[in-house]
Write a sequence for this structure.
């Protein structure tokens, strides 16, 4: 195929069976969220660009990775690179701060970042996320982290280890920032070009550099700079998580790539992907909604989870059962009745399909063997007498049954003989 017809770099076509697995992950995530009281909020996939500028003008997703365009009406729009700013906008615009707090929300959908394509970094990826508004309590941070862990566990990842840090608040972070700049200034000549720039724009991100890792090892630890409230918040959160049986690992250099965080930041990785690739990440961001014209104090905390990464982490042991399908085969001349019967079964809640290729019965059975466990055979004298054949492919058991008793039989797996 000529290059200009191919999908854009860094995107993927999600085909069966992967699409079915992704659909199941979506179902599990939203179901889990609902059990925690987080209800689905859907925002547009694009927003006016200033909404995302609030994520932080020095962050990668705003500076280099934005898919922005001006529409025919001259409005500057951006495909959402993440869900948090969009949810904050929706929270403020819909006056949700007037509702009883906390407000618990979740979202699921595509995000767009013009990243350099590499393994596990796509230009369109899918995120499931949850955001809690209205509580400053460490219990709120704990709850969103517990939800994220519950989702990954439900999908089959045992014992997630939460990488946790606090990046302090406006009280205590400035002193840490100074100490960090001093430390890195003394090593200025050894720094990569990006870090030399970061020193002026966003010094905390120096700790995030994938190149200057060795220099970071001896950098000052923010814990020594936490004010009393930040230290108490971190301690209480850790205790809450461990009381709920979760494993926590303190990561002194975890700062995350978005500017809106204060205090809590967290991620979890998967051993198969290395420490640079997180399955989910999040934190507390008490000031974001205020910068979008929200009320003065709008505490919030949340996370975003990459569904493609979850899927890849699961790939080897991922065995979510797919809905079993019924194949309605036909003898020659009984194409129409087989279609009618398949429709009858679907209306009763089964997954059923009939042959559309006018194949011989032998070819239909071969086709059925590729995708289905049970075949219903339509045709001949049985059909005239109101009966159909049923064959379970796994063990070869076969029987004839009255058409009106078919669905009861298919619902009773023990009848297979
Ligand atoms: P983030 O760390 O940028 O945070 O993204 C969240 C998750 O989305 C990552 O941990 C990763 O699993 C997935 N992800 C991000 N970029 C890509 C990509 N290019 N390809 C594949 N997967 C990707 C946020 O977006 C914040 N909004 C999270 C948050 C919610 N913080 C508070 N509330």
């Amino acid at each position: 195929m000529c290059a200009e017809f191919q999908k854009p770099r860094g995107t993927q076509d999600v085909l069966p069976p992967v699409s079915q697995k992704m659909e199941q992950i979506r179902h599990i995530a939203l179901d889990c969220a609902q059990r925690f009281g987080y209800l689905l909020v859907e925002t547009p996939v694009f927003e006016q660009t200033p909404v995302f500028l609030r994520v932080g003008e020095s962050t990668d997703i705003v500076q280099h990775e934005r898919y922005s365009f001006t529409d025919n009406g001259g409005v500057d729009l951006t495909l959402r690179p993440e869900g948090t700013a969009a949810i904050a906008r929706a929270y403020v615009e819909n006056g949700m701060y007037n509702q009883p707090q906390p407000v618990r929300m979740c979202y699921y959908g595509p995000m767009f970042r013009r990243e350099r394509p590499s393994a596990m970094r796509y230009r369109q990826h899918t995120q499931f996320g949850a955001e809690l508004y209205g509580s400053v309590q460490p219990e709120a941070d704990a709850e969103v982290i517990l939800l994220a862990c519950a989702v990954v566990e439900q999908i089959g990842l045992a014992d997630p280890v939460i990488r946790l840090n606090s990046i302090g608040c406006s009280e205590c972070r400035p002193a840490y920032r100074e100490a960090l700049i001093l430390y890195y200034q003394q090593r200025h000549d050894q720094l990569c070009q990006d870090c030399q720039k970061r020193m002026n724009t966003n010094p905390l991100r120096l700790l995030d550099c994938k190149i200057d890792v060795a220099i970071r090892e001896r950098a000052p630890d923010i814990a020594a700079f936490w004010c009393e409230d930040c230290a108490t918040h971190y301690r209480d959160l850790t205790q809450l998580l461990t009381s709920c049986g979760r494993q926590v690992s303190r990561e002194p250099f975890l700062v995350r790539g978005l500017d809106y965080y204060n205090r809590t930041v967290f991620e979890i990785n998967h051993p198969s992907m290395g420490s640079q690739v997180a399955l989910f990440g999040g934190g507390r961001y008490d000031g974001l909604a205020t910068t979008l014209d929200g009320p003065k104090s709008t505490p919030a905390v949340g996370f975003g989870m990459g569904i493609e990464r979850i899927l890849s982490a699961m790939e080897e042991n991922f065995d979510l059962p797919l809905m079993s399908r019924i194949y309605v085969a036909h003898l020659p001349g009984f194409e129409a009745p087989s279609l009618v019967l398949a429709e009858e079964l679907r209306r009763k809640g089964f997954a059923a399909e009939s042959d559309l290729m006018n194949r011989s019965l032998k070819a239909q059975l071969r086709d059925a063997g590729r995708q289905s466990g049970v075949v219903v055979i339509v045709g001949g004298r049985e059909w005239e007498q109101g009966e159909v054949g049923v064959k379970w492919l796994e063990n070869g058991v076969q029987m004839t049954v009255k058409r009106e008793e078919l669905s009861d039989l298919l619902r009773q797996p023990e009848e297979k003989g």
The domain at 325-411 is CATH 3.40.50.800 (Rossmann fold). The chain has a mean pLDDT of 92. The first helix runs from residue 18 to 35. The two ends are 51 Å apart (CA to CA).
